[in-house]
Amino acid sequence: xxxxxxxxxxxxxxxxxxxxxxxxxxxxxxxxxxxxxxxxxxxxxxxxxxxxxxxxxxxxxxxxxxxxxxxxxxxxxxxxxxxxxxxxxxxxxxxxxxx
Length: 99
Hints:
This protein is mostly beta strands. 0% of the residues lie in helices and 46% in strands.
């Protein structure tokens, strides 16, 4: 709220507000690839591992991440991949106030 007074004592005031919308997606960083050697598990040909990822948003900070599939099932030599996502509060208004 701003107020102005002239030399005659007349006063006028006005206020201003605005809305800031978070339109920047969070940054997601996947964990390092996991390599399983059959020699380290006694000659196994199957196994599983849970994927890891971290998500950060400029407004929301650290976000929960969900990955699918979880766990990753390893059935012999080859590569398996998970898709990880994070949701953030896009559309939440942050009020700006003028002095």
